[in-house]
Amino acid sequence: MESLDYLKKLTCARPEPTGQSRDLVTETESNRGRVIQSAALRRLQQKTQVYPLETNASVRSRLTHSLEVQQTGRYLAKTILDQLKHTGDHAQMGLAGIDTAFTNLVEMSCLLHDVGNPPFGHFGEAAFSRWIQNHGRACHDKALARKTTNDGGHSQLFYEVLLPDLSVFEGNAQGLRIIHSLQTLNLTWSQLAATIKYTRSPYQNVQPGYEYRQKKPGFYYSEQSLVQDIWKHLDIKDNCRFPLVYIMEAADDISYCIADLEDAIDKGILTFRGLIFWLREVWQECGDDSNYLPDIIQRAENLAKDNPQTFIRHLRSHLFEDLVNYAARRYVQNHADVYHGTLDQPLIDGGSHQHLALKTLKTVAIRHVFNSQEKETPELRGYAALVGLLDIFRPILELPRAAFANLEHHEGGEHFVEHRLNHRLSRKYKAAYLRAVSQLSQKNLTLAEENDLEWYYRTRLILDYISGMTDHFVLTEYQSLSAI
Fold it and tell me: How big is the chain by its Cα radius of gyration, in Å?
């Protein structure tokens, strides 16, 4: 096997040096403390997993789902390390003595994997994306038309990079932005790399050979220089992944497929017998002639008799153990590609019984859970509130740069509405905006490019603020500001 050295990938260094000299395990424990104590993680307790505005505490939120992914990731990491010890590769890869650090990095990447998800989940992502696509250009044009100086109009950067980048809101990309740019957690380079699931920005096209790793945006233009620094510090080639990302991804896939169906039974959306029927029917549609999933279903059904909770528990137990072992074997068998981040498929791949089992569970959820009125009705309420809030804050995006800069100092006059809206924005998020804008003068930019970048970061500020809200706060804030 090719010589692989994990000591080049798992490092103590951070973007902002702390001045302390500590071992790798201690630094990963420091990451853990920073993550668990962050406001962004706490907000997940009131963000949608599947069912928006859910009041039943036993139904999963983004936080409880993330805790389950964390535990799955921990077990999968330990299984991989055990298999590497069994093959005799563990020590020669530099993993001796740093098992805990390896596992800590995986756990925290799992805990953070959904931290960028907006209110109302993927429906919220679609709301932000559509609003910018429909109104972003007009807001920018109005801000430009109201300027009192000739600054050269739009820049090519605006058309080719900035507007396309804003036009796709993606939770994975927003997660990296929250962790580093907004919450300024200053996690180690390795911890940051372990959260980057996809390797392109929204404005970049998918490159041949990278179809899986680039199927979604993984970071925004605003964090592009950060990502380049991560790749440089950890010797990651362009458009390649950090190896531990594959573990986090598999842990998420294993966790949510069964969980979504369990919640559907608890809420009465699916019946016990209905679930079993649909699982068997969809498995046959997948075209797998084996009895891999039907046998697992039958064993769980025999043990459960007529108790749906017992059925789910045994289904999860049988599938969980096999999926973890399969993912661990794939990690070890494809170790060179995983280590270098060139494996362009998940650990639980498309040619296996295990992948088809996950596909079956996902398909049943899509057909019989995700289209239920109990899920769709609050999503529509959330969409109306998100779009309404974006409309309310639109005047901020229509101001010339100088006028926006003066909002903090002038309360009355022409921009009295914008002044009050500005007061509602998070101080921490405004600080991130000011940091980004203050650096523009240090770059070799035309005046048009500098103004367009200021507007880009101002738009990010509005998106940061509203996307950081919890589901309930979105409704409350919209009702408060629209006098409904």
Answer: 24
Band of the pLDDT at 375, cuts 50, 70, 90? confident
From residue 145, alpha-carbon distances to 134, 148, 188, 392, 475 in Å are 18, 8, 44, 20, 33
Structure token digits, residue 37:
């104590």
Position 1 confidence tier, pLDDT thresholds 50, 70, 90: very low
Catalytic residue, chosen from 114, 151, 288, 452, is: 114
- 151, 165, 252, 253: the active-site residue: 252
- Evaluate if pTM is beyond 0.85: yes
Q: Which two structure tokens, joined as six digits, stand for 350?
A: 């498309």
Bigger pLDDT: 179 vs 152: 179
Maximum alpha-carbon separation in the chain:
77
Catalytic residue among 86, 420, 424, 435: 420
Q: Is 423 an active-site residue?
A: no
* Residue 415 pLDDT: 86
Amino acid in the structure at residue 81: L
165 among known catalytic residues: no
In terms of Cα–Cα distance, which of 329, 265, 307, 377 is closest to 79?
A: 329
349 in catalytic set: no
| Tokens 């993927």 sit on residue | 122
- The candidate with the shortest Cα–Cα distance to 218, out of 257, 163, 259, 179, is 179
Tell me which of 90, 113, 200, 314 is the catalytic residue: 113
Burial group, residue 14, by CB count within 10 angstroms (0-12, 13-18, 19+): buried
The encoded tokens of residue 318 equal: 């049988």
Segment 234-277, tens digit of pLDDT:
999 999 999 999 999 999 999 988 888 888 888 888 888 999 99
pLDDT of residue 176: 98
**SS3 label, residue 48:** strand
The verdict on whether 391 is a catalytic residue reads no
Confidence check: pLDDT of 5 > 80: yes
C-beta separation of 279 from 342 below 8 A: no
Q: Which of 34, 43, 8, 12 is nearest to 25 (CA)?
A: 12
Phi (first) and psi of residue 48, to 5 degrees = -65, 135
Q: Which of 14, 43, 60, 65 is catalytic?
A: 65
- Per-residue model confidence (pLDDT) at position 114: 95
Whether 213 sits among the annotated catalytic residues: the reply is no
How far lies 201's CA from each of 26, 117, 187, 254, 338, in Å?
33, 17, 21, 27, 22
Return the pLDDT at 346. Answer: 95
Q: What percent of the chain has pLDDT over 70?
A: 97
Least Cα distance to 155 among 463, 455, 395, 462 occurs for: 455
Tell the burial category of 64 from Cβ atoms under 10 Å away from its Cβ (0-12, 13-18, 19+): middle
CA distances from 252 to 114, 136, 158, 256, 352 (A): 10, 33, 35, 6, 18
- Nearest of 436, 421, 418 to residue 466 by alpha carbon: 421
